[in-house]
Amino acid sequence: MKDIQYSTNSGFGLVEMLVGAAALSVAMFAVSGFFQTTLVASRTTQTAIQGDYLLEEGMEALKLFRDTSYANSLGKMSTTTTYYFSWNGTTWATTTVNTLIDGKFERKFTISDVKRDANEDIASSGTYDPDIKLVNVSVAWKSGTGTTTRSIQTYITNIFNN
């Protein structure tokens, strides 16, 4: 009769497959985590860029108000009121009612009077200059960590004397 010999390596292939599957799973989870982080960063960047474009568009709308009729638009706006932009399909208008853009962005603007000192320089006190306004446009939106607000400020002058 022959002696039966048992292999001490039995089941070793199964252990190798389990270790390989575990290593592959860890690698796949790491890759999917990376892609998830990349997607979140991409959405955040996209929203920030949209907000910046809305700021720029708001400034351009204010320049259109100036160009059309400074006296009947910017010249008559209250310095104590917060205004919002509205688009009626053909032209820009202002409103005091907040309307969200794309259900996400709040865009508003304020106007401040400008004063000049004895040297005709812009100053915090002095003579009121009706042909220049300080405008501040801001855009705000909710993000994952709270509310993000960006704003831009500039002077708009009645360059066309209208």
Mean pLDDT figure? 90
Class inferred from helices and paired strands: alpha+beta
Multimeric status of the protein: single chain
What is the end-to-end distance?
118 Å
The major beta sheet can be summarized as: 6 strands, antiparallel
Shape: rod-shaped
Q: List segments where confidence is low: pLDDT < 50 over at least 5 consecutive residues.
A: none
The number of helical elements comes to 1
Question: Can you count the beta strands?
Answer: 6
Proportion of residues in helical segments: 25-40%
List the helices and strands in order: HEEEEEE
Total count of domains: 1
Percent of sequence in beta strands? 25-35%
Rg is 31 Å
Overview of this structure, please?
- The chain starts with 11 loop residues before the first helix and ends in a 5-residue tail after the last strand.
- It has 162 residues and is an alpha+beta fold.
- It has one domain (12-157).
- Strands 1, 2, 3, 4, 5 and 6 form a six-stranded antiparallel sheet that branches.
- The model has no long low-confidence stretch (mean pLDDT 90).
- The chain is built from one helix and six strands, in the order αββββββ.
